[in-house]
Amino acid sequence: MGRWQRRSRYGGAERAALAALAAPPPPSAVPLPTASRQGGYHVQIGGEKSDHLSAAAHISAPLTKQVDPSVLDSEDAFMVKPLFKAASIAAIAAAGIAPAMAKEGDAQVVELRQYKLAEGRRDAFVELFEDRFVESQEALGMRLVGQFRDHADPDRFTWIRAFADMPSRATGLNAFYFGPVWQANREAANPMLVDNDNVLLLRPAAPDLAFAPAAPREAAGAPGGAVWVVIEYLWKTPDEGFAAFFDERMKPALAAAGLKVVGAYVPLAEPNNFPRLPVRDDRKLLVWFVRGDSHAAIEAALASARASPRWRAEVEAPLRDAEERAPQILRLDPTPRSALR
Fold first, then answer.
1. Residue 170's CB: how many other CB atoms inside 10 A?
2. For the segment 286-333, what is each residue's pLDDT rounded down to a tens digit?
3. 133 and 264 part of one domain
4. Domains in the chain: how many in total?
5. Centroid of chain to Cα 52
6. Whole-model pTM?
7. Which of 34, 39, 185, 265 is 20 to 30 Å apart from 312, CA to CA?
8. b or e along 28-66 (b: 16 or more beta carbons within 10 Å of the residue's beta carbon)?
């Protein structure tokens, strides 16, 4: 599929969102969405059918972002990044909150999201996602750690979204999924999604195992390597010894073989505070993330680690005893705009 024409793709909904920025703040804010539902029809949120929230369901806070109306008439106003940033700010303005960019401690809550896509539609989905859903989420305080094509399955897409905490997650997801950017693009995205409910809601396995704070995003298409996500399925919850074992023995043994663990996470034992996007209820697992120059390089380093005397003495037997079954390994190729690459 060829590159889309940039300026012709934006419809009335997105232009209206931009125009709304020039308007004065509303006289009063309206309350945060509650558990009450409006009946009669449904909307799609990331492929899931959910009851519609009232259009008045926004977050209460003063509007702080204003834009010069003349910007809306300039030639550059509809270039890609300015548009998405403005549309993102419009989403925030609609919710009545000020933009909050990712900062240190921005990955204390993580979603590992695995999607099954319609056959042959992954490239189109990646292009839509990276054009429309990167800045629009980050401007709302969420962090996109990375987006990936599955190396072994042409119809799988995996991405990692992070938050500072659970209240930030609820705020960001409500603002995004009921804001103008998602509403304007969901009809394009949803038909490409076959299943998007394979989601783990996670927290760092230890303070030093969270993803490093976000760095400036590299230019699209910058050289990248490979990322592996290893999901360890355990007999017991990771807090019953395995998280400490991973941090104190397994991670150093991997590092000694040249594999730097960029993050390790365990299930977050809190209720899903945005239930319109389901998450798995698995509790007995630990997920670790590594990157390398290539899949072959990661494979070789992992083989070297497993063959080392240190691994055999300190890791092999305890790991075998802790594993309920063989780990799941996601071999991932970063997309052009993935931060983790």
1. 17
2. 999 999 999 999 999 999 999 999 999 999 999 999 999 999 999 999
3. no
4. 2
5. 23
6. 0.73
7. 265
8. ebeeebeeeeeeeeebbbbbbeeeebeeebbbeeebeee
